[in-house]
Amino acid sequence: MLVHSLPVEPQPAPCANVGGASAGRHLGAYVLGYAGFRSGTGAAINHRVLPVAGATLVIDVDGYGAVVTGPRRRAVIAAERWGHGVTVGLTPAGVRAVLGMPMGELAEAIVSFDEPALVERLAAAAAWGDRFAILDGWVERKVRQARHGIDPRIAAAWEQLQRPDSPGVEVVAARLGVRRRLLEQGFQHDVGIPPGTVARIARFQRGAGMLAGQVALGRAAVECGYADQPHLTREVRAMSGCTPAELRRHLHLAQSFKTAPPTPA
Fold first, then answer.
1. Which residues partner with 34 through β-bridges?
2. Three-class DSSP labels, 59-112
């Protein structure tokens, strides 16, 4: 589970979330997963967008608009608001195929998404499963129509660097038969953040998942590969703007997941 964003202000009730993987297994190179969300009141609220290594499409089905948040190194308070809708996690290849641009153009940004026909179809669907099926069909069409892709070595490195057992940038580059400098240049264009930062964000996200699961800080630090608990604390502060205790509290209030496959978005 990846955590995309958290409410800025405390909610009277936990936010409800339901996750779903793409039904089309061949879409795995493009889509990380789907999620349905509703704020504690159902009203649109401000969010703190956390560091993620991919892009996320956020569609509010109650008419508050839609945005794409790009990869980022540090949390930011979004000017836009959302309260009830769906998110789509996209890989670098997914951004190129679905949005028609390299993900590097979205780095550290939040941009408007304008596809009213899709938003209307999602709003008209009553069940989350129906909404996810609509998204599957939409992504499949976009992939079929895509004219350009990304270097498969960049896609492979992006995926490998996020694994808990990742051997590091140098080894990944060597395994893929590319010099580190060329890998970094490819990441600048097709990812938007350096390879080492992708691995760092993945480690932060694993730590956030453990905090959400009420795992002790010391254990989370060890299992996520931090040098020690103070190292984890520094990284959480630097990347989320919160202390681990604050982040744990926000996650507890924001992440009330319904029974469904886990979502990375």
1. 20, 88
2. EECCCCEEEEECCCCCCEEEEEEECEEEEEEECHHHHHHHHCCCHHHHCCCEEE
Pair of tokens at residue 97: 């195929």
Pairwise CA distance, residues 135 & 156, whole Å: 24
The tens place of each residue's pLDDT in the chain, 265 residues long, gives 688 999 888 778 778 888 877 666 789 999 999 999 999 888 999 999 999 999 999 999 999 999 999 999 999 999 999 999 999 999 999 999 999 999 999 999 999 999 999 999 999 998 999 999 999 999 999 999 998 899 999 999 999 999 999 999 999 999 999 999 999 999 999 999 999 999 999 999 999 999 988 899 999 999 999 999 999 999 999 999 999 999 998 887 665 433 333 333 3
pTM: 0.92
Please list the residue range(s) of the chain that carry CATH number 1.10.10.60. 152-252
What the block records as the tokens of 259 is 């029974």
Q: Does residue 136 contact residue 27 with C-beta atoms inside 8 Å?
A: yes
Contacts (Cβ under 8 Å, ≥6 apart) of 121 = 134
Q: What b/e sequence results for 157-170 when a residue is b if at least 16 CB atoms lie within 10 Å of its CB, and e otherwise?
A: bbbbbbeeebeebe
Q: Say which CATH architecture domain 152-252 belongs to.
A: Orthogonal Bundle (1.10)
